[in-house]
Amino acid sequence: MSIAPPPRVPLASGPAAAPAAERSEDYLWTLNFGPQHPATHTTLRLVLKLEGERVVDAMPEMGYLHSGFEKIGEHLTFNQYVTVTDRMNYISPMANNVAWHHAVEKLLGIELTPRCRYIRTIITELARISDHLLCNGAVGLDTGAFTFFLYGFYQREVIYDIFETLCGARFTNSYTRVGGVSQDFTPLVIEKIRTFLKTFPKTLADMERLLTRNRIFVDRTKGVGVLSREEAINCGATGPVARASGVARDLRKDEPYLAYADFDFQVCCASAGDCYARYLVRMAEMRESLRIVAQALDNLPEGPVNVGIDQRAALPTKRQVYSTIEGTISHFELSMSNRGFEVPCAESYGAIEAPNGELGFYLVGDGGECAYRARCRPPSVSHFSLFPRLIRGHTLSDVVAVLGSLNIIAAELDR
Amino acid sequence: MPYVPPAVDDVLAAVTGRFGGLESGRFRDQTSLTVPESQSLEVLAFLKELGFDLLIDVTCVDYLEYRGAKHRYGLVYLLTSTTTNQRLTVRVFVDDPTSPDEAGPTVRSVVPLWQAADWLEREVWDMFGIRFAGHPDLRRLVMPEEFTAHPLRKDYPLQGRGERHNFPVISRDHS
């Protein structure tokens, strides 16, 4: 007995083919991509509708890594919660630490010391470099450029080493504190950053030579996943994704926080809005970050790193606690549950330009030692919701290129 | 010199001129505007016309245990202009319905104005149980579809047991 092949329905190509197009829905494949797939890098899921190899529609789904971070934020004190922010975008935890305490200090009305501003600027920019290295490396990896990824990952290791020297932790740093940071820069840390500033541009140039004009890579990414400027703004895209679409918006320039007003750097933009433009923007931003770090190191102010004991806004150091009466009193009062920080009954929003986009926290204070509400505005959510518009009409193999170029981190996405 | 954001007085004046006196507040250089639910969509559409083209966030606060709060929920719309860098926080307060027959608290969706609101409103529905009338696809965003509670409400405990009944029991024969 012979089995008749299923009738082929032609693709819709004009008014005559309209009824056939309705029936061709039956021939669409539904492909489940994730939540566990090497190219999603984290746990997120896509349900793809395929017409042959072409993606007709995609339905992104999230929530596989939901850990109730915002609920936990209502039960941990402002200094404790920094450990949770490490676990949001774990590709650049330092930037999350800075974002959290930036928002907290805005609510509490604390002015940082100049040295602390510079130090936070330096570590945020190092975090940006490490984030972009991984993101671009992953785009390369997913499109077949393994060497590029290893070059990037080796340099990430150098940044990890700097962070380990600085605060003892490689990955989950929990470096910032209300009104300051946990450790001041030591001469060794400064030396290591200077060495990185000297050696990294060479690797960066190597990486650009490997991929930027690589025919295979350019063919895989150019014209793929195009996001127009209007769509980018309307869909709430921020950071490199928006800048690659021509939205010249960078909080470091537009709302200079920390010490960014003191430095000379460019906002890196592109107009194409495709995966290749996002790659280029990230590559260019790494060079600008290096410039910022170099300028900040050269002009690193002397003086205390944390706000003074008299302000009663930062935990005093061990030496202050054990050798001065003011230090002892301040430490004791800040640790008591009925004293602590002076938290206003008010609401404020503080955001920084994280490597991935605008990372902000909307905080509601009720006078207690914990936030009444600690809303995190993660950049990944708006970027992931863009995914269906970017992939429609492209092939299945483009899914990983688009997903990689959006740099979606599920831990930040789901919180 | 600390950064001072551009003032939004002109925007407030324009909104007041069109919609009458709305309550506005200022804290740490951030201006917030309180809008009644009946006017929320119109005011937000007007603000979009005035140049607030980027919707940064839609979120909610449950004021159940907040001292002196008059309403149960407060929706927060964080608006930004990509041209002038002005920022404005729009607050819309809603309450649980008084009679048990009515559906839960509902506000009108802003998805027609900003696509960015799509997933943000889904998250608010998921976490706080506030419905958005006119939303194209109001499903839960992070919790599973079978979930019945809204975890970020203040009456939802941080720790405890439960929710097991939401999941089907699969026996060895049927697995």
Textual characterization of the structure:
The complex is a heterodimer of chains A (415) and B (175). Chain A has 415 residues and is mainly alpha-helical. Chain A has helices at residues 18-24, 69-73, 82-86, 93-108, 114-142, 146-167, 187-211, 215-221, 229-234, 239-243, 251-254, 275-298, 318-323, 325-335, 379-385, 387-391, 398-406, 410-414, and strands spanning 29-33, 45-51, 54-61, 176-177, 180-181, 347-354, 357-364, 373-377. In chain A, the strands form three sheets. In chain A, strands 1-2-3 form a three-stranded antiparallel sheet. A three-stranded antiparallel sheet of chain A has the order 6-7-8. In chain A, strand 2 (45-51) and strand 3 form a beta hairpin. Chain B is built from three helices and seven strands. The model of chain B has no long low-confidence stretch (mean pLDDT 84). In chain B, the strands form two sheets. Chain B has a five-stranded mixed sheet with strand order 1-2-5-4-3, covered by helices on one side. Chain B has one domain (9-156): 2-Layer Sandwich (Beta Polymerase, domain 2). Chain B is globular and about 65 Å long. In chain B, strand 4 (73-80) and strand 5 form a beta hairpin. The chains are: A mainly alpha (415), B alpha/beta (175). Chains A and B meet through helix 2, helix 9, strand 6, strand 7 and strand 8 of A and strand 3 and helix 3 of B.
Question: Which key phrases capture this entry?
Answer:
heterodimer, A: 415 residues, mainly alpha, Cytochrome-c3 Hydrogenase, chain B, 3-stranded antiparallel β-sheet, 48% helix, B: 175 residues, alpha/beta, Beta Polymerase, domain 2, two-stranded parallel ribbon, 3 helices, 19% helix, 24% strand, globular
What is the topology, as strand order, of the major beta sheet of chain A?
A: 1-2-3
Q: Helix content range of the residues of chain B, please?
A: 10-25%
Percent in strands of chain B: 15-25%
Tell me the count of domains of chain B.
1
Runs of chain A in which pLDDT lies below 50 for 5 or more consecutive residues are 6-20
